[in-house]
Amino acid sequence: DAVFEDKWDIGNIANEPERAKSINFSFPYTLIESTFLVRKHLNFNTIKDIDNEGIRIAVAERSAYDLWLTENIKKANLIRAKSIDESFSIFQEKQYEVLAGLRPKLSDDIKKTEDCLILDESFTYINQCIGSKLNNTEAANFINKFIKKNIVNGFIKSLLIKYNVFGKLSLPKN
Questions:
Q1: pLDDT tens digits for 8-21?
Q2: Domains identified in the chain and CATH numbers
Q3: pTM (2 d.p.)
Q4: Burial of 23 (C-beta count, 10 Å sphere; 0-12/13-18/19+)
Q5: What number of other Cβ atoms are within 10 A of residue 155's Cβ?
Q6: How far is CA 162 from the centre of its chain?
């Protein structure tokens, strides 16, 4: 909404198709992995193991990964919560089999469980980008050159390491 109210010129924001109708998105400078927290006793090792009848997946409604799950999960039941924290609460309280989320948040949530693990595999990535106004192609071109250069020269990776988020955030492929 702020883009239409002329409240900003550029900003750090996740690239989503709906937003792309009103925002120029740069190449991603980091990726945030979406994956699953699962009950250990179920022996789930891959995403394919999860998409089966009778499996309940707690997910924050309208999250970027909820959109991916809606389009791709065919057999398991998606149980939507109003927030990310609420999705974890219902996963625990109702003993659902699976919780969908962003790897950094799931890494925090697993500390509050005794019977779970996080899948190594990711089902999608959230592209963290710099957004600019649609009509500002000069800014978009400058930002893209800056991001590409700093991924290639290792500067962005060095910042992720410096601020202890490398591993929670991934670098895009060149």
A1: 888 888 887 878 88
A2: 10-30+124-162 (3.40.190.10), 33-118 (3.40.190.10)
A3: 0.78
A4: buried
A5: 12
A6: 21
